[in-house]
Amino acid sequence: MLLGMRCKLSWRGVREGGAGQAAISLFALPFLTTAALGFVWRANSAPAQGAAAQTTAAIAATRASNTGLTAATPRSAGLNIVVLDPAHGGADYGARGAEGVRESEVVLEFAGQLRRGLESQGFQVVQTRLGNENPSFDDRSAIANAQQGAVFVSLHIASTGLPGTARVYVNSDLPTGPDPTGLIPWDRAQGPFLSLSKKLGDLVQAQLTQRFRGSPDVAQRAAVRQLRTTAAPAIAVELSSVIVENRNDLDRMAPGVAEAVARGVAAFRPTYVVAGTAGAQP
Ligand SMILES: [Zn+2]
Q1: Which segment of 15-24, 73-82, 190-199 scores lowest on mean pLDDT?
Q2: Distance from the CA of 155 to the center of ligand 1, in angstroms?
Q3: Is the N or the C terminus of the chain less surrounded, counting Cβ atoms within 10 Å?
Q4: Strand, coil or helix: what is 268?
Q5: Of all residues in the chain, what percent carry a pLDDT higher than 70?
């Protein structure tokens, strides 16, 4: 589930603790049109949920367990990391079908196949969850925002839609400029990345549509909560649907989805140059 009434966790009005309090200081504003990641996190994000320290630790642990990377690890220029987000988890199953299909479980399994597809294209993959935990929206975004040269892909299974189809969503319009203090608030971190997200979304959607007839031709815009706080090109991929009588009907989509996402992200790679490394080849 992803949108509106179909997903109570992902609609426009939801605010996680910390939203609007944390901010991104952009010291590379001229580069924003090319998706510079020249930002630092301002440590003023009051622990609104009393969990800031835990969050930091959890993110560091997740990153370490995923890739072994640390903040000090030098990386090559350009896009080289895909943050893969199996949505929901824990007590939040997401969409559920009458036959017991749970979105949170399916997306985690799909993530494993997507991971292998992306790695075969030379990307490092960082997952926002590896098991049945349920990180907050902000924690998941923070994992992406701590990377340099990353894109973010959130995975969902819908409760509606033509079975066997796949849709890509990018965030609808957000203000793109900094506030009067020169900072971009956490809850509109996606603003400067919207056009790049659309480009990435269209590339992935085109690959999906080749494989899953009846899918849209281009990425859709919507108010996706998870994407709004992500300071990187970010998309949500939603498959239809949990309303299958046989779980195999859904599982059969996994290899095609994995290949489509990997090829779409690979096609996006040349358009994405990280600030300070302009001119360097990915
Ligand atoms: Zn969902």
Answers
A1: 15-24
A2: 7
A3: C
A4: helix
A5: 70
8-state DSSP, 95: S
**What are the Cα distances from residue 123, in Å, to 107, 120, 152?**
19, 7, 12
Cα–Cα dist 190/231, whole Å = 5
CA 130/CA 207 separation, integer angstroms: 26
Q: Which pLDDT score is estimated for 198?
A: 97
Distance 96 CA to ligand 1 centre (A): 10
Whether the pTM exceeds 0.90: the reply is no
* Ligand 1 center from residue 236 Cα (angstroms): 9
| Residue 267, pLDDT score | 97
Q: Which two tokens stand for residue 68?
A: 């072994």
Average pLDDT over residues 246-260: 95
Q: Quote the ligand 1 centre to 217 CA distance (angstroms).
A: 21
Ligand 1 centre distance from Cα of residue 156 (Å): 4
Beta strand pairing status for 81-86 and 150-157? Answer: parallel
Say how many Å lie between the CA of residue 1 and the centre of ligand 1.
3
Burial class (CB in 10 A: 0-12, 13-18, 19+), 271: middle
Ligand 1 centroid – CA 14 distance (Å): 15
Q: Name, of 67-81, 172-186, 195-209, the range with top average pLDDT.
A: 195-209
136-184 pLDDT, tens per residue?
A: 999 999 999 999 999 999 999 999 999 999 999 999 988 767 777 777 7
CA of 54 to the centre of ligand 1 (A): 25
Residues with C-beta atoms within 5 A of ion ligand 1: 1-2, 87, 94, 156
